[in-house]
Specification:
By secondary structure, this protein is α+β, with helices and mostly antiparallel strands. It is built from 5 helices and 6 strands; from the N terminus they run H-H-E-E-E-E-H-H-E-E-H.
């Protein structure tokens, strides 16, 4: 399975919409569905392109992201702890270090994505509230 990210041009996309416009139709449909679920689970999250991939940030902290590759799509949960929590639900997908790969034409189950996003929100809240409290 190739891990080459799809790039229609060398120019960095300015938005998630421009990123999706460059993705093949099969992957685009899955990623649009994924985006919709993420937005529903984290309505206050902001969208941006970070490290060349569509990403969602909440309170200026990374939450999740996604990307299209030559042979698959990826959902970046950005947390090995959260993925470990949902290991049973993710067992049919290839995973590594906070990333799950899935076929371009088979979106991840919406309920699973929602649970991962909600868990990431809780994880970030706990992590960054501790940092805030520790500052003098």
């Amino acid at each position: 399975m190739s891990r080459t990210m799809l790039k229609a041009s060398s120019a960095k996309p300015a938005s998630i919409d421009s990123y999706l416009a460059k993705v093949p139709p099969r992957a685009r449909a899955s990623l649009k569905a994924l985006r919709k679920v993420i937005r529903a689970a984290a309505p206050r999250a902001t969208e941006r392109i970070a490290y060349g991939i569509p990403s969602f940030y909440l309170d200026d902290h990374p939450l999740v992201g996604f990307a299209a590759f030559k042979a698959h799509c990826s959902f970046f949960g950005m947390s090995t702890a959260v993925f470990a929590k949902y290991a049973a639900a993710l067992k049919k997908y290839p995973t590594s270090a906070g990333t799950v790969r899935f076929p371009m034409d088979q979106p991840l189950p919406a309920s699973l994505v929602k649970r991962v996003v909600k868990a990431r929100i809780a994880e970030n809240k706990a992590r960054f509230s501790k940092r805030k409290a520790a500052k003098p």
